[in-house]
Design brief:
Blueprint (H helix, E strand, L loop, with lengths): L9 H28 L4 H26 L2 E3 L6 H14 L5 E5 L6 E4 L7 E5 H6 L2 H17 L1 H27 L8 H42 L2 H15 L4 H7 L26 H20 L1
Parallel strand pairs: 2-4
Antiparallel strand pairs: 1-2, 3-4
Helix pairs in contact: 1-6, 1-7, 2-6, 3-5, 5-7, 5-8, 6-7, 7-8, 7-10, 8-10
Pfam family, one: Peptidase_M48
Membrane topology: Multi-pass membrane protein
GO molecular function: metalloendopeptidase activity; zinc ion binding
């Protein structure tokens, strides 16, 4: 992890390395199967796989910002938001990321970018309207922790590999089917490849969900330790989660695909299975923040 004053998390680092190893291995096996079945289409497979991966890595921050409706703002346009980010970056001794606002009533925030110098931190208008200044700083400290620990880059890449598996399947099938009866493997591939793709996507999905839940706990802890105000972050969590139930379902559904990147999940249903959840439960997050508060109190008395 680059030098910052954010508390390091070896557990997060281990999980990120493990997740990327298994997803990378899964992806290599998947590409190998495609190359074995569609031998004549290997140039198309390699070009698409390599090109899309490079594009995603270099332009992930812009893609995410555009998808979530974020627009970059200047200090003159959003002085309070920029002021909070300035204070936290000075406190954390890290480069200031680009700052953006998404025009939606869904109260949330997210960070994206492949490294600290290419990062973007975004808050929604719904979040800015609802939170007090110290609560907003707690949320921003949480998001900047994702940037400092680089887990946002790992999540972006890991999530993309599952999507890329689906794209590669369609491209390979199209390339194979276009040759028609000249390839005896086409009939088998029509049945086999979609099944393999579904398995690859499912395993990628579960691995990224497991990492996502841990990284949220890690960011809560690191952000609370940096600011020294875990109660402000706990208050923001409680407020955002409570307000989410008041947002129209159609608005929640629009942003639900980006839950893994959000400060708090936007859920359009009553509940979600913990196995598939992108975030730990509110109770678990508040319990951890209570322990951090106790830890800080004991350190202060010591």
């Amino acid at each position: 992890m680059p030098h910052t004053r954010y508390a390091p998390d070896r557990g997060l680092t281990t999980r990120m390395v493990t997740t990327m190893f298994f997803i990378g291995l899964l992806y290599v096996v998947f590409i190998g199967v495609l190359l074995a079945v569609f031998k004549g289409a290997w140039p198309l497979i390699v070009i698409i796989a390599g090109g899309l991966f490079v594009a995603q890595f270099w332009f992930s921050d812009r893609i995410a910002a555009f998808s979530m409706g974020a627009r970059e703002v200047t200090p003159q346009q959003a002085p309070e938001l920029h002021g909070a980010v300035d204070r936290l970056c000075a406190l954390a001794d890290m480069p200031k990321p680009r700052v953006a606002i998404a025009d939606t009533d869904v109260p949330n925030a997210f960070a994206t970018g492949r490294n600290q110098r290419n990062a973007l931190v975004c808050a929604t208008t719904g979040l800015l309207r609802r939170l007090e200044p110290e609560e907003l700083e707690g949320v921003l400290a949480h998001e900047l922790s994702h940037v400092a620990h680089r887990d946002v880059a790992v999540m972006t890449i890991a999530s993309f590999l599952g999507v890329l598996a689906g794209i590669m399947t369609r491209a390979a099938l199209w390339g194979g089917l276009s040759r028609g009866s000249r390839n005896n493997n086409v009939g088998i591939a029509v049945l086999l490849i979609p099944l393999i793709s579904a398995v690859v996507y499912a395993i990628s999905f579960l691995l990224t969900r497991l990492l996502s839940r841990y990284r949220e706990l890690s960011a809560d802890r690191a952000g609370a330790l940096l600011t020294g105000r875990p109660s402000a972050l706990a208050a923001a969590l409680t407020k955002v989660t409570g307000q989410m139930a008041r947002i129209p379902t159609r608005d929640l559904r629009k942003v639900e695909p980006y839950n893994a990147f959000f400060f708090a999940p936007a859920l359009s249903g009553e509940s979600v299975s913990r196995l598939f959840s992108s975030h730990p439960t509110l109770e678990r997050r508040l319990d951890q923040l209570a322990r951090v508060s106790t830890q800080l109190g004991q350190a202060g008395r010591g």
